[in-house]
């Protein structure tokens, strides 16, 4: 229902001439299974296998030729190999390392079949002694729903159409901002959106948030690499949504007695689940991106709604006039990062921010975007141009003259000048247009 954008991406995958089995990657409860079930309507036949079930898992565990496996699979599903275009979805595939290894044969010997695999804990075994068929599968990242999908979920179809017009009508600005504030408040978890679309009652969402966080905590033993790491990851999950958006230190993270090395290793393990992301700063204004791993990373959590719930600030967001006024501006920055991630389903899509190379400098630009061979700075901030001091310092040394401000104000493009006198073009982009950032940059000559 909500992941209409991922459906379009799945359609693109399905028509590739050299299509490979697809592994959907993403945290628990972001809608992987639901999205594939919806996509299955594009096919003549749909075979769903859940490898948490022993009878489904046994199909892959037996020792027989691959051709016999296919025969067994179709007989089990009561389908025919000649029954038309067939989609096979292997869910919870992490329960069978042999099934993961067999994906290569679907590519090499059964290219007529459309194969998608996923697993709520698949990320936790990535990198372990599991034989992933490198080069014979492809990956797609699934994250919480975007603002566009929020509009779709809340049955705002006409507004969604207007949002895709080349020029969004100015008279709709206030309405879009109001809706984006609601999206920034509740986030994009499909279970949350499903309930909100039925009642529009934010207070009714608390049990869903609580259940989500509990489910992540409940899987700690499966995320961890050792029994000792269970304690570290449990501590991270109990604190991560409250610390999201801030720069962190591993040593004693969340007022713990744990050492830096213990925490860092636990964070790395948790990153594989796609629940959290450590964003390290870059100090250069030019490509290639070279994050500085010796500096403090900024913590990005799975979903802004979970951040708001954990910090008990949902009411504050509802009543504040400006999104940037809430939680020291961290919520505005975090939801923009979430939107930037949602614009691209590749695993390589990442977030970066910039800090000035001088260690005693406080200059920091919220995000930097690789675009046409340039690094475009993005500040999430309201107020006059003169207050964008960090952006000014970036532009003073950048080899181009275009910058972006994401704010609650209207869309505009203006000529600006730094405090030091450097002239540049500033694209003022409303929150609700972050998903089309590159499209708007295409209209500006970036030199």
Strands, count: 15
Principal-axis shape? globular
Number of domains: 3
Biggest beta-sheet profile:
5 strands, parallel
Widest sheet: strand order? 2-3-4-1-5
Textual characterization of the structure:
This protein is an alpha/beta fold and 447 residues long. The protein folds into three domains: 4-141, P-loop containing nucleotide triphosphate hydrolases (Rossmann fold, 3-Layer(aba) Sandwich), CATH 3.40.50; 147-342, no CATH class; 353-442, no CATH class. The chain has 18 helices and 15 strands. The chain is globular. It starts with a helix and ends in a 5-residue tail after the last helix. The model has no long low-confidence stretch (mean pLDDT 92).
Topology:
Blueprint: H1 4-14, E1 22-25, H2 32-39, E2 45-50, H3 54-61, H4 66-76, E3 86-91, H5 97-109, E4 114-117, E5 138-141, H6 147-153, H7 157-163, H8 173-186, H9 190-199, H10 206-218, H11 220-223, H12 227-243, H13 260-271, E6 276-279, E7 281-282, E8 298-301, H14 304-311, H15 314-319, H16 330-342, E9 353-355, E10 364-365, E11 367-371, E12 374-380, H17 389-397, E13 402-407, E14 412-417, E15 423-430, H18 437-442
Parallel strand pairs: 1-4, 1-5, 2-3, 3-4, 7-9, 12-13, 13-15
Antiparallel strand pairs: 6-8, 9-10, 11-12, 14-15
Helix pairs in contact: 1-2, 8-14, 12-13, 12-14
Quick structural summary:
40% of the residues lie in helices and 16% in strands. With 447 residues, the chain is an alpha/beta fold. The strands form four sheets. The protein has a five-stranded parallel sheet with strand order 2-3-4-1-5, with helices on one face. A five-stranded mixed sheet has the order 11-12-13-15-14. Strands 7-9-10 form a three-stranded mixed sheet, covered by helices on one side.
């Amino acid at each position: 229902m909500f992941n209409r954008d991922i459906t379009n991406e799945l359609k693109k995958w399905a028509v590739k001439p050299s299509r490979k089995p697809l592994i959907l990657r993403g945290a628990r409860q972001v809608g992987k299974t639901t999205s594939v079930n919806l996509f299955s309507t594009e096919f003549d036949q749909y075979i769903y296998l859940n490898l948490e079930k022993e009878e489904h898992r046994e199909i892959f565990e037996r020792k027989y030729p691959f051709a016999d496996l296919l025969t067994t699979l179709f007989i089990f599903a009561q389908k025919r190999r000649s029954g038309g275009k067939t989609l096979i979805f292997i869910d919870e595939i992490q329960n069978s390392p042999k099934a993961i290894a067999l994906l290569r044969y679907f590519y090499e010997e059964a290219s007529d079949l459309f194969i998608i695999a996923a697993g709520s804990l698949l990320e936790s075994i990535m990198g372990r002694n599991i034989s992933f068929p490198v080069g014979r599968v492809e990956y797609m990242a699934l994250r919480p729903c975007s603002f566009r999908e929020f509009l779709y979920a809340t049955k705002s179809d006409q507004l969604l159409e207007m949002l895709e017009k080349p020029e969004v009508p100015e008279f709709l600005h206030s309405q879009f901002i109001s809706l984006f504030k609601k999206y920034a408040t509740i986030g994009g978890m499909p279970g949350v959106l499903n309930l909100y679309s039925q009642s529009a009652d934010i207070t009714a969402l608390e049990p869903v948030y609580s259940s989500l966080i509990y489910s992540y905590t409940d899987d700690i033993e499966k995320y961890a690499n050792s029994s000792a790491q269970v304690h570290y990851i449990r501590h991270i999950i109990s604190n991560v949504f409250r610390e999201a958006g801030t720069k962190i230190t591993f040593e004693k993270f969340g007022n713990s007695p744990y050492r830096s090395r213990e925490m860092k290793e636990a964070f790395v393990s948790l990153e594989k689940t796609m629940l959290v992301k450590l964003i390290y700063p870059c100090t250069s204004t030019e490509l290639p991106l070279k994050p500085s791993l010796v500096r403090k990373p900024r913590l990005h959590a799975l979903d802004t709604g979970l951040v708001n719930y954990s910090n008990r600030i949902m009411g504050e967001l509802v009543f504040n006039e400006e999104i940037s006024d809430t939680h020291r501006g961290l919520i505005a920055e975090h939801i923009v990062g979430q939107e930037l991630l949602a614009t691209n389903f590749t695993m390589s899509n990442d977030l970066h921010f910039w800090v000035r190379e001088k260690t005693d400098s406080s200059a920091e630009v919220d995000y930097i975007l690789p675009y046409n061979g340039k690094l475009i700075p993005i500040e999430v901030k309201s107020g006059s141009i003169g207050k964008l001091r960090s952006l000014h310092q970036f532009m003073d040394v950048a080899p181009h003259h275009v910058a972006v401000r994401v704010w609650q104000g209207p869309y505009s493009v203006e000529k600006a000048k730094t405090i030091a006198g450097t002239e540049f073009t500033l694209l003022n982009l409303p929150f609700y247009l972050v998903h089309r950032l590159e499209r708007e940059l295409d209209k500006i000559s970036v030199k």
